[in-house]
Structure formats: C-alpha cells, structure tokens
Amino acid sequence: MPAETELDSPVHAPASAGAPALSELEIEAIDLFIGLIRLLGMPKSVGELYGLLFVSPVALPMETLMDRLNMSKGSASQGLKLLRSFGAVKTVYAPADRRDHYVAEMDLSRFATNFIKGELQPHLDSGVRRLDRMEQLVTKFSPEEREIAANRLARLRHWHEKGQAMLPWLLKFLVV
Amino acid sequence: MPAETELDSPVHAPASAGAPALSELEIEAIDLFIGLIRLLGMPKSVGELYGLLFVSPVALPMETLMDRLNMSKGSASQGLKLLRSFGAVKTVYAPADRRDHYVAEMDLSRFATNFIKGELQPHLDSGVRRLDRMEQLVTKFSPEEREIAANRLARLRHWHEKGQAMLPWLLKFLVV
DNA sequence: TGGTTTGTTCATTTTTTTCTGGACAGTTTG
DNA sequence: CAAACTGTCCAGAAAAAAATGAACAAACCA
Predict the structure, then answer these.
(1) Which of A34, A108, A114, A168 is the most interior residue, by most CB within 10 Å?
(2) Which residue is nearest to nucleotide C10 (CA to C1')?
C-alpha cells in the first residue's frame, strides 16, 4: 500500500480551507434528496442544496452552501432561485450579516402544489387542446379510417380526463 | 429571397424514397406522446414510436417505423424493447411476413402499473431504508442536536409514508 | 465618491444522455 | 450450406443538460 504522505488528505481535496467535510448524516440527506429531485426532473445540484439545508439546524448563507457542497456560485444561485420559486426554501434575516440566509421549508406541501400546478397541469392542458385538434382532423377522414381513429382518440381523451381528475385529488392528499 | 431551385423540397429532406411523410394527425399524436413520455423521463424517440403506433390503424414492422420517423435501427430496436418491457406495445403475427409487427397497447393501465412498480416504488423503498440509517446516526448526537434532527427526520418520514400510501391508491385509480 | 460585499446572469466548458451505424447472432430460404 | 433477412448490441458521434466562472449590477460602507 502506498504511504500516506500528505497527512491524511482524502482523495478529493475539500475546498482548500474553511469547509468542514460533510457529515454522514448530511451525506445521507443529500443523497436522499438528490434522488427525489431527480424524480421530478431537476438537476442534482438542486437536490444537494435542499438536502444540506434540510438537515442544517441553522440558516446558511449561499457562500457556505457553495463551500460545503463544492459548488460554483452560478449553480448555487440558480438552484436556490429555483427552490425559492417552488417555495421549498426561504430566506431568513440574520442579525449583523448582510447576506441572505436560507432555511429549508419543512412543509413540503407548498412545494408539491407548486410543482403540480407549474409542471403537470400545463402538460395536461396542452394535451387536451391537442386532442381537440386531432378530433377536428379526423372528421375529414373516410368513414372507415374515422371509425378506428375516433375510437382511439376517445380512449386517449379518457386517460387525459383521468389525469385531470386525479390532480386535484393528489393535491388534497398531499396538503392534508 | 433565395430561389427554390430544388423543386419544392422542404427544409428537411424526408428519407429518400419510400417513406410517406407524416400526416398532420400523426404529427399531433407524436407530439402529444413525446410530451407525456418526457414527463416520465424517457427519451423522445420512445414517444415518437408510441405516438405513431397509437394512431396507426394497422400493425407496423420496425422497418416502417424507422423509415417514417427517420430513426436509426438502434434507436428503434431499443425504444421498442423499452415499450415492450412496460407493456405499452406488443407484437402481433403478420401472415406471410417474417418481421414482427407492432401495435400500441390501448389500455395504458398496464403501462402505468409497470412504471409505478418499476420506477417509483424502488425510489420510495430506498428512501425508507435511508431514513432508518439516518435515525440511527442521530442517536449519537448531543441531546440538543438530536432534538432538532429527530424532528426533521420525523417530518421526512411522514412524507415518505404519505408517498407509500399514495401509490396503491394511484394504481387503483388508474386501473379502473 | 471609491471601494467592498453579495448575488445574478450568461457565454463557455464539462458531463450526461441519446442516437447512430455497423458488427454480429439467430432464422429462414433456396 | 451459402445467401438473405431480421433484429440486438454496443462503441463512438452527436445532441442536450448542467455546471462553471467571470462580467456585471445592486446594495452597502467609510
């Protein structure tokens, strides 16, 4: 085995000086939220930010997040902006410090609501508009073709309606 | 304006010879399914395949899909494999033709079920395992830290349980 | 006012995902 | 059995998404 000459520095040198390495708990939390966030189609960096804030007992300024997560200023700024826009994170006043300090919003229901309204609903809406257009197109077909196509469009519409009906329920379920 | 020398060929030359351009209906359907499929985190090509099959009144061999969608053999093969694995598409026997012929499965509930069981459930499961680990870690903290951390983990667990509880309901909702 | 600090934006670079096309394996056919 | 056909797989190319870092704007300070 090669001798550890650099007195026990790990493989990935942590950002030079003042950034304490992530604790086990922090790593687990970050991992968990990376997975969750990915599921919603958002970038990993956003999961990292939220994960660290989630387990932090104190509000953290952007700089600390950058340092501890080894993340660029750009990513941190953009990620926090996104999280703010979903209400997943908010800033609190820190006495004698000009910087914004961030805390994770513990009640995720606003996050869920905003996500559903902002990402899911629009898709369904545009889908319905498109279905209307398709049904329009089908009327010009020969009776035979129309038969089949109309049937399929009806099925598709059925699914869309199911989706539409589900969202409000989903919201209610999450909010309670 | 530059003269149209190539007698009215459109900007994107359609695959040389025998591939009829997509009809308006087909384009709408493909667009719609690309959106839906993207929402589930799958590549565009998969949406194209399913969209075209969805409005096709007849079963189509892979070759036709490749030609009409201007898609490589590799993408078509992989995409159909994925769709098959989710039960979104199946092959039917075509007399006097050695090639597999594909039709879209109109009942999307199997697709939904497989997606939930294959993609969502595992995430939630691993999340719960991770939560257990985190709670384990927290026990080693000082009482003060433990107080805060334990509280947050409890909230997180609450959300995970909500998610767990929702999936079966979601399934039932979709299947009916 | 000139110098700091804090945070945003965006062109570029890096990383990740998706697509492509050919080698290959399995079948069928003559 | 060789030749033709069908479909899978995978290394490399292309495209898309995300991260970086520096220029910039805004707010504060002395």
Answers:
(1) A108
(2) A74
